């Protein structure tokens, strides 16, 4: 049994304390859930499960936010939901779990996606309750507590990335995202969100037009005095949600659904948890080996811009064409709503592949604990 993606939508990405900050994360999730089934043209009662990524599972995002979102959307009580956490890759992992479940025959139709409201649930809040998540045995093995910003500095040093190079990559992310937004490339994938005061948010808020290397050079580094990482070359704190609909081939045919893409290959990899951010490199290598494809077969690469050194080091190791890497900008410009980012990037990649008749696209992203997902999509014509 095969599995295909027949729908993909996302909210705009709101900046911290921006247009989406007054919306409960379950209600923000409900927006994309309803838009997804409405655009696909199927009834929510046909959905077997909702697999939802979320990192900060405390407060408003606690108690299985997936299930709360399903009910907030007005869907039948018969539709369940489960919330998963693979850190920044949570909603990418949601897709991979969903596809595997459909192929195994457990589900006919399942929604995968995720949410994060970082304005409402402060990053790291869960780690501040009930003691450290780093156990004594973990600390016996590693002599340093992982810190993503420090890890990004470690990557910049290991791959000899200068401050000017890192800032140039970051400025390019804003330039590409602005060009994509101006050309309307995000419009079809975005579902506008109406806020409690009646304001309609329909555009990504994080893009800083006119960002230059010269402007970025004036920002103070955060994690190392003579380092390279600062607020301008790291992903933005954001709010957002995204969702994809995965169904079996038979279900798609029976319900007259149009397949957009299929998962060709999905893998996960682990690496050094202290540097933490380098796992997209072995994950990509594993995905290419497992798929039987080469770098030259891939027409678009999406590598999450948690920090600029992550995709830059990845590119040095993998050898991908820079023009094919994050062609519409990335998290430095568009933002990084943790649990929703994987689905947001997958959604953009699907639309980009269909717009440009690209057969294969590869997405990978670094994750807490030194992990990474890598997913290869194949266009369905």
TrEMBL record:
The active site is at 88 (acyl-thioester intermediate), 336 (proton acceptor), 366 (proton acceptor). One of its GO terms (molecular function) is acetyl-CoA C-acyltransferase activity. Residues 257-378 form the Thiolase C-terminal domain. It holds the Pfam family Thiolase_N. CDD domains: thiolase. It comes from the Bacteria. Keywords: Acyltransferase, Transferase. InterPro entries: Thiolase (IPR002155), Thiolase-like (IPR016039), Thiolase_C (IPR020617), Thiolase_CS (IPR020613), Thiolase_N (IPR020616). Residues 4-249 form the Thiolase N-terminal domain. PROSITE patterns: THIOLASE_2 (PS00737). Belongs to the thiolase-like superfamily. Thiolase family. NCBIfam families: AcCoA-C-Actrans (TIGR01930). PANTHER family: ACETYL-COA C-ACYLTRANSFERASE, BLR7806 PROTEIN. This is 3-ketoacyl-CoA thiolase. It comes from Rhodococcus wratislaviensis.
